[in-house]
Design brief:
Blueprint (H helix, E strand, L loop, with lengths): L2 E7 L4 H6 L3 H5 L4 E4 L5 H8 L19 E4 L5 E4 L2 E5 L8 E5 L4 H7 L3 E6 L11 H5 L4 E4 L11 H13 L5 E7 L23 H23 L5 E7 L4 E2 L5 E2 L5 H4 E7 L5
Parallel strand pairs: 1-9, 1-10, 5-6, 7-8, 7-9
Antiparallel strand pairs: 2-13, 3-4, 10-13, 11-12
Length: 272
């Protein structure tokens, strides 16, 4: 059984990722512009946790996991591309590499004997809060590295160290989930040069500069992580993007092009 890894960069925009100098991440395979299932952390991850990843609409397995196509030329048949992870309930069957039972793919992998490990960097993953338990409860082991109130947390290096310790002690294949908070507003990472400066909202150029710096930092951290892992299927994406002054809008949680377009990589072991 292959290990399963889902990494999410919170709030990362597709265009900023595309412009970034993130050589390790970009060396992993074919990144695509995809369209997320939710405009903020909770609904996006709820969808991811039932196997509904961001979609590309390009009719390619693992990337185009939502659309159903109908063709008169094929004698009124439906055609679906293959999902990586799919729940056997409550939807109608469609092709998938892993078909899972349970409330979500996490419980589904647990039923198959996987050790489920999770860690989150933003407050939707704080299990001490009632809403935070929605996303964290299914995991056998979950760690939220706390921070002040509802601010984004600079915790990537701590998360990776904790994850690697969990994996070393795993006695079975694992499902690993990491949500990194550095790319979330206010776009901070450990020892960044702007950590003490004012909130960047109101300055589009500064927001873009800071989020780009965060993903370039996280590229190095993910390299540290993946160099020590093996035999896995890998999904890396953003849960949603961020408006940075377009049409006078800032933040996320509403429908706008800057929020819906996210980066997506699916790397299935043993397949091109």
């Amino acid at each position: 059984m292959k290990n399963q890894i889902l990494i999410v960069f919170d709030s990362l925009r597709w265009d900023i990722f595309k412009q970034s100098d993130a050589p390790f991440l970009k060396s992993l395979g074919r990144w695509k512009k995809a369209y997320t299932q939710g405009t903020y952390t909770l609904p996006a991850h709820m969808s991811f946790f039932i196997g509904k990843l961001p979609t590309t609409f390009d009719e390619e397995d693992y990337y185009d996991t939502v659309a159903t196509r109908y063709s008169k030329k094929e004698k009124r048949t439906y055609r679906n591309t293959k999902q990586l992870w799919r729940l056997a309930n409550p939807e109608a069957p469609r092709p998938s590499k892993y078909t899972l039972e349970g409330e979500n793919i996490i419980s589904g992998f647990r039923e198959k004997g996987y050790f489920t490990i999770g860690t989150g960097g933003v407050n939707w993953f704080n299990p001490d809060l009632p809403a935070g338990r929605i996303l964290t409860a299914p995991f056998e082991t979950f760690r939220f590295f706390g921070g002040p109130q509802y601010a984004s947390h600079v915790s990537a290096e701590y998360q990776i160290a904790w994850v690697l310790d969990c994996v070393r002690n795993a006695k079975s294949p694992y499902f690993l989930f990491i949500n990194f908070g550095e790319t979330h507003h206010r776009f901070l990472y450990k020892n960044c040069s702007w950590s003490g400066e004012k909130n960047p909202y109101g300055d589009s150029r500064e927001c873009r500069r800071r989020q780009r710096g965060c993903i370039e930092y996280l590229s190095i951290q993910v390299e540290t992580l993946l160099e020590q892992l093996s035999d896995y299927d890998l999904v890396i994406c953003s849960d949603h993007g961020e408006a940075m002054g377009e049409d006078g809008l800032w933040g996320h949680g509403f429908y706008h092009k800057t929020i819906l377009e996210v980066p997506l990589l699916v790397k299935v072991s043993g397949e091109v």
